[in-house]
TrEMBL record, chains A, E:
Membrane topology per record: Peripheral membrane protein
Native source species: Labedella populi
Membrane found in the keyword field: yes
Record GO terms (molecular function): ABC-type amino acid transporter activity; ATP binding; ATP hydrolysis activity
Principal localisation: membrane
Transmembrane spans: none
PANTHER family noted in UniProt: AMINO ACID IMPORT ATP-BINDING PROTEIN (PTHR43166), GLUTAMATE_ASPARTATE IMPORT ATP-BINDING PROTEIN GLTL (PTHR43166:SF9)
Entry-linked Pfam families: ABC_tran
Family per similarity comment: Belongs to the ABC transporter superfamily.
Cellular localisation: Cell membrane
Keywords assigned by UniProt, alphabetized: Amino-acid transport, ATP-binding, Cell membrane, Membrane, Nucleotide-binding, Transport
InterPro entries: AAA+_ATPase, ABC_ATPase_HisP-typ, ABC_transporter-like_ATP-bd, ABC_transporter-like_CS, MetN_ABC_transporter-like, P-loop_NTPase
Cellular component aspect of the GO annotation: plasma membrane
Protein name as it appears in the record: Amino acid ABC transporter ATP-binding protein
Automatic annotation (TrEMBL), chain B:
Sequence intervals crossing the membrane: 20-53, 60-85, 91-112, 159-178, 198-217
Single biological process term from Gene Ontology: amino acid transport
Family statement: Belongs to the binding-protein-dependent transport system permease family. HisMQ subfamily.
Entry keywords, A to Z: Amino-acid transport, Cell membrane, Membrane, Transmembrane, Transmembrane helix, Transport
Domain of life where this protein originates: Bacteria
Designated name of the protein: Amino acid ABC transporter permease
GO cellular component: ATP-binding cassette (ABC) transporter complex
Lineage: Bacteria, Bacillati, Actinomycetota, Actinomycetes, Micrococcales
Key word Protein biosynthesis present: no
Cross-referenced InterPro entries: AA_ABC_transptr_permease_3TM, ArtM/GltK/GlnP/TcyL/YhdX-like, MetI-like, MetI-like_sf
Entry keyword Acetylation: no
UniProt membrane topology term: Multi-pass membrane protein
Pfam hit, one: BPD_transp_1
Residue ranges that the Swiss-Prot or TrEMBL entry lists as coiled coil: none
From TrEMBL, chain D:
Keyword tags: Amino-acid transport, Cell membrane, Membrane, Transmembrane, Transmembrane helix, Transport
Gene3D superfamilies linked to this entry: MetI-like
GO biological process: amino acid transport
Family: Belongs to the binding-protein-dependent transport system permease family.
PANTHER family, A to Z: L-CYSTINE TRANSPORT SYSTEM PERMEASE PROTEIN TCYL (PTHR30614:SF0), MEMBRANE COMPONENT OF AMINO ACID ABC TRANSPORTER (PTHR30614)
SUPFAM superfamilies: MetI-like
Residues spanning the membrane: 46-69, 76-97, 181-203
CDD domains: TM_PBP2
GO terms for MF: transmembrane transporter activity
Domain ABC transmembrane type-1: 12-200
Organism listed in the record: Labedella populi
PROSITE patterns, sorted: ABC_TM1
Protein name: Amino acid ABC transporter permease
Keyword Transmembrane: yes
Species classification: Bacteria, Bacillati, Actinomycetota, Actinomycetes, Micrococcales
Length: 255, 248, 266, 214, 255
């Protein structure tokens, strides 16, 4: 955010992503300091998921620059450098809107796998940590179930535990609470607060304004691929500057 | 006594003189194509039926299908042919050569395609069946419009493989005097002792059919796949990717 | 039975003090005569490491005379001549007729025996006219097949082997089977049919092999003149010594067939 | 005839040797080949397409003649068994690559993305994520192909490899009884293929029960 | 609901569904009058989705009875009668938690297909109606996009349009607003009110208590497979009888 002072941990400038004719991300710049929590709000199809996916280069921007920690990249349509992409992703965890769990692995295996393969943890250690993360999201009982045997909310939490277990410096959450009841939502909120306290930088897309207000330091409002408004949640929610933001937020209250 | 180093009249001459045999072999193509068409056109739908039967709740139907499939793919086509052509007369059924060949090839292609199609059906997410049921679609529509198009993405390459195998396998019909390409090729070879050239000519004729057909099938599969998800290599992600759908 | 192995296997070992009848003969492997063998009784039989049969015995004798060890490369008929053309075998046996088409691609040896085209049927027919009115089966590669095809049209059925043709004769799908005399005797034993007889076909222009009787030979690679000359000499020797007739008798083969006369080409 | 049955049964070894070697070649080398098909480079993809279509399009008999006789003309004289393994093996590579290609289509894009997001290395992504799902997607088709290969190995009889069909042919030559002997040979093939079919069914049912495709 | 008077449109009695050892649905009975809207709330994994799937027999109950309209069934472990199942589904539309869109069809084709095949509408009519439904959920612009080209919320709305287009008498919504921003959520709310006004009976699982409160006539609280409390939303939310319900709802307020 422009608002954040000091050295930024994530720095994105003039990111553009087109799908055919459609500009899904239209010249977005972001600057996030270490340990900050940013929430992205905005109507369906505004480009929130796409922006998150650009931040760990799952989607390659058409143009712009991106820096996460020490790893910086410039995008200009030429093939991206694998090593740089890997360096960015190495710091970064992601919770997908559609979860993308590994269907052939049980919950605990889903969470343990990358720890063993990427962080080089032993099988036992990875399992212990995986169970701890599942416990943290209230899923200890489902540790040995396969994703197809879990309810929607349970799958979502496996996805969260999987990303948490990698101890990322930057967490990207795509609607982390969309399928969760308020009770579990509150647990996840608590987890995110812990993470923030530990200095983890977080960006999350969410439709739950209350959630955004409670958890984030800064809120960005996205509409049609652009960030039209940004500021502290209290400011954005209570005194939106932009007419479009006002209209968007009125729905929450009007509901 | 020194060792004798053999030379052929013109080494590798078969690489360029095969074309002379094309006119001789071509008359066999019609028969081969007709047999292939029958074995694929009748065999694949039967295979689809067998694939459904092997997953059905009725144990009787399931076992019937499994036996038909296992015998059909386990017995060599040659033996199926001999059974139909030479074995059936002993119980009073006398099929002519073409009909015998058709029966044997259809059985074989149905058995093989059943397993291929079963695999493809298994790759379709359960949610797709759920959605079709919830919309009250009847089974025919569900399979035809929802399930098969998605199963085919997985099944088209092996089904094309199988089609080519059946096309080549029509040459087995030579055993019972059906005059197709390889039958003529063998005959000409035995007269002129120019097997390499003759077989090359046969290969060219086969290629002329199989390459366009399998390229077309590839394109078909890509059309089905392109709109669903764009796959990427395990190695790397090409630029300009399409994001995955949010279905899970 | 059979004991073919995929690697060529040797039969008799030559005497160390042996003197070849033709010292200038060269073969693919020194001291070894590699023979592509198409199993075709009674001409060519390979059993328990021994090459026998009417032609097999002759081949064995030739190898002895040239102080060569026989190595057998087995296979189907399509692979035989190709083996000789490509230097995988020195020569081959299995009742190969001398034909003009074949002479263009391999060296044909002098005739070994004749094998007159014969008709197996239940009617005792033996003329081209009678044949023309029948449905006839032949094994693939039979000489004059194209002439028979002209004579019979769709009523000629070609099978991959004589055995398959005979099986259909038994099943009643064809009225008769045409093959060389030797093979006919063998096949009718294997596929007995009530009232069936074997009749050599009477000379008729429309089937050239009945005018010019088919002669079997041992084809050799075109670049190995020395070998074919040696084979020719050796065959003449075996014939004049009376050995050839003895061999024929041993296999119930008509002794007059061992005197084929001048080489011809079908 | 009893002796003939024994001899035919004894030829099973050669048939199995041919089938197993060709299948292994195809299963192992088909995998790197299919990577070509997935490549970003149009040239590599073109190579894949040409290779697969030409190898699959030409009848195996012709390849066998080229391997056995054609190579000999170039001075490369392979024994009959080696020629047969080479021929069937190369065809198996192309076929398996196509089977893998179909199987990969069953794996959702999200699976790759989750692996990338977790920074899994290529090898781990392939081994831990893609392969198990691919295995499930192709195991019945692969089993079916191996059953087919079992019978395709009979091709080697042309050049005298003493496998089941060659020996059966010899016995028919000397004894007649073509129908019975070939039926017997067929039963041997059936006896070999049924266990394979059963194993593949059991594996597939287990996997399907264990986890559903999401 | 026991509360509803008069003739019921949906009548479920003593439904039980086990997955292995686990009783996902544990003796649930429901009675819903024509035109009523029922909301199912409760923690993740409580069995809400499973109950909805039992109501159109996508999942076969292990025991119990079910009647929807005129079609009645008794479950006792024997194979179910296809004709009965079809009769039930014929009245029923469903929006899935995971959408289950047909990936090989465009949005408008997804919505039009069953109309043509099941209701026998002509191609033109089906397309016109499909476009109208997409319009209704704010998706007219994405009519020709494939599901993989749509954002999460857009996919969800295609799923809603697909079910609506069949004019069902009974609609089953599995978290219809989970991926939707408040603005679109409000639109969907409006749509559901229209449906209710037209006499469509609705059952929906939701985590959004405000949504449940606004749209439903009755609310059921599910915990561990059982319905532990039911009543008018105002009553359940403001004066829950059950201790567990109180605990569950406190999270909403505490957030
Ligand atoms: N592969 C694609 N091809 C074409 N258009 C796409 C593709 N992926 C996304 N889009 C479009 O880009 C826009 C942004 O999508 P994105 O998924 O980022 O939205 P979002 O803000 O996450 O919405 P939601 O809240 O519904 O998840 C949408 O209009 C979507 O239709
Ligand atoms: N196929 C299955 N095999 C085993 N257990 C299952 C299966 N499907 C669901 N379950 C279990 O049944 C319980 C109920 O699942 P259900 O999906 O109905 O929950 P839900 O109330 O919809 O939860 P959510 O709010 O998270 O979507 C869960 O504990 C789940 O793990
Ligand atoms: Mg999104
Ligand atoms: Mg649910």
């Amino acid at each position: 955010m422009e608002h954040s002072s000091g050295h930024s941990f994530v720095q994105a400038e003039h990111l553009v992503k087109r799908f055919g004719e459609h500009r899904a991300i239209d010249d977005v710049s972001l600057s996030i300091a270490k340990g900050e929590v940013i929430s992205l709000i905005g109507p369906s199809g505004a480009g929130k998921s796409t922006l998150l996916r650009l931040l760990n280069v799952l989607e390659t921007p058409d143009s712009g620059t991106l820096r996460v920690g020490d790893a910086a990249m410039t995008f200009d349509g030429t093939p991206v450098k694998r090593a740089r992409v890997l360096a960015i992703r190495r710091h970064t965890g992601m919770v997908f809107q559609s979860f993308n769990l590994f269907p052939h692995l049980s919950a605990v295996q889903n969470v343990a796998l990358a720890q063993m393969r990427v962080l080089g943890r032993s099988k036992d250690e990875a399992r212990t940590r995986a169970l701890a993360q599942l416990e943290r999201v209230g899923l200890a009982a489902k540790a040995d179930a396969y994703p197809s045997q879990c309810s929607g909310g349970q799958q979502q939490r496996i996805g969260i535990a999987r990303a948490l277990a990698m101890d990322p410096d930057l967490m990207l959450f795509d609607e982390p609470t969309s399928g969760l009841d308020p009770e579990v939502g509150a647990e996840i909120l608590a987890v995110m607060r812990e993470l923030a306290a530990d200095g983890t930088t977080m960006v999350m897309a969410t439709h739950e304004m209350e959630f955004a207000r409670h958890v984030s330091h800064w809120t960005c409002v996205m509409v049609e691929g652009a960030v039209i408004e940004r500021g502290a949640p209290a400011q954005v929610f209570d005194a939106p500057e932009h007419e479009r933001t006002r209209r968007f937020l009125s729905a929450v209250l009007g509901r | 006594m020194s060792s004798f180093l053999p030379t052929t009249p013109a080494p590798l001459s078969w690489l360029w003189d095969w074309y002379q045999w094309i006119p001789t072999l071509l008359p066999g193509l019609g028969t081969a194509l007709l047999l292939t068409l029958v074995s694929v056109g009748v065999g694949y739908p039967l295979g689809f039926g067998l694939a459904l039967l092997t997953e059905t709740r009725s144990a009787l139907a399931r076992w019937f299908a499994i036996v038909v499939v296992e015998v059909g793919r386990g017995l060599p086509i040659l033996v199926l042919l001999l059974l139909v052509y030479r074995g059936l007369p002993s119980v009073g059924i006398l099929f002519d050569a073409f009909l015998s060949a058709s029966v044997a090839l259809v059985w074989s292609s149905a058995a093989y395609s059943a397993e291929i199609i079963r695999t493809g059906l298994g790759a379709v997410p359960r949610g797709q069946f759920d959605a079709a049921y919830a919309l009250s679609m009847n089974r025919t529509d569900m399979y035809r419009l929802i399930v098969l198009p998605q199963a085919l993405r997985v099944s088209i390459p092996p089904l094309v493989n199988l089609g080519i195998t059946m096309f080549h396998a029509t040459s087995l019909a030579t055993v019972i005097t059906v005059e197709e390409i390889m039958h003529i090729a063998n005959l000409e070879g035995s007269i002129y002792f120019r097997y390499m050239s003759v077989f090359m000519a046969a290969a060219v004729i086969y290629l002329a059919i199989t390459v366009p057909v399998s390229l077309y099938a590839d394109r078909l599969a890509k059309r089905l796949g392109g709109v669903m998800t764009v796959r990427k290599t395990v190695l790397r992600r090409p630029a300009g990717s399409v994001p995955v759908s949010a279905e899970s | 039975g059979c004991s073919g192995t995929e690697e060529a296997s040797s039969t008799s070992a030559p005497d160390a003090s042996c003197t070849p009848a033709h010292p200038d003969v060269t073969t693919i492997t020194e001291g070894v005569l590699t023979v592509a063998q198409y199993p075709y009784a009674p001409f060519s039989i390979y059993e328990d490491g021994e090459l026998t049969g009417v032609e097999g015995d002759v081949m064995t004798r030739i190898a002895e005379m040239e102080c060569l060890t026989i190595e057998v490369v087995p296979g189907e008929s399509a692979a035989m001549i190709t083996s000789v053309q490509n230097g995988r075998a020195d020569t081959t046996l299995g009742s190969w007729y001398r034909t003009a088409a074949r002479e263009e691609v391999v060296l044909l040896s002098d005739p070994v025996v004749t094998s007159p085209l014969s008709l197996i049927s239940t009617t005792g027919a033996d003329t081209a006219d009678e044949i023309a009115a029948m449905t006839i089966g032949v094994g693939q590669g039979l000489t004059n097949a194209e002439n028979l095809a002209e004579l019979l049209g769709d009523n000629l059925k070609t099978y991959p082997s004589g055995d398959a043709a005979m099986a259909d004769f038994q099943a009643g799908r064809v009225d008769g089977v045409i093959m060389g005399l030797g093979a006919a005797v063998e096949q009718l034993n294997l596929h007995p049919v009530d009232g069936a007889s074997i009749m050599p076909i009477q000379a008729d222009e429309r089937i050239p092999a009945t005018v010019d009787i088919g002669q079997t030979n041992f084809p050799v690679n075109q670049s190995n003149e020395a070998l074919v000359e040696a084979i020719n000499d050796d065959i003449a020797e075996i014939r004049s010594s009376g050995e050839l007739a003895e061999i024929a008798e041993k296999y119930d083969y008509p002794v007059d067939a061992t005197e084929p006369g001048e080489p011809n080409l079908l | 005839m009893a002796e003939a049955f024994l001899l035919i049964a004894a030829a099973t070894g050669a048939t199995l040797l041919l089938t197993v070697s060709a299948a292994l070649i195809g299963i192992v080398l088909g995998a790197p080949l299919v990577l070509l098909a997935q490549s970003r480079s149009a040239i590599l993809r073109g190579i894949y397409t040409v290779f697969v279509h030409v190898v699959r399009g030409v009848p195996a008999l012709v390849w066998l003649f080229i391997a056995f006789f054609g190579l000999a003309e170039l001075g490369i004289v392979l024994p009959a068994l080696a020629s047969a393994v080479l021929t069937l093996g190369i065809i198996a590579i192309a076929t398996m690559a196509e089977i893998y290609r179909g199987g990969l289509a069953a794996i959702r894009q999200g699976q790759y993305e989750a692996g990338w997001a977790l920074s899994l290395g290529r090898w781990s992504l392939a081994k831990d994520i893609i392969f198990p799902q691919l295995f499930r997607a192709v195991s019945p088709t692969t089993a079916t192909y191996i059953v087919g290969l079992l019978k395709d190995s009979a091709l080697a009889s042309i050049i005298g490899v003493p496998e089941i069909v060659y020996v059966t042919g010899l016995e028919v030559q000397s004894l007649g009884h073509g129908l019975e002997l070939f039926l017997f040979a067929g039963l041997i093939y059936l006896a070999l293929s049924i266990p394979l079919g059963v194993v593949s069914r059991v594996i597939h049912v287990r996997l399907t029960r264990r986890y559903a495709v999401l």
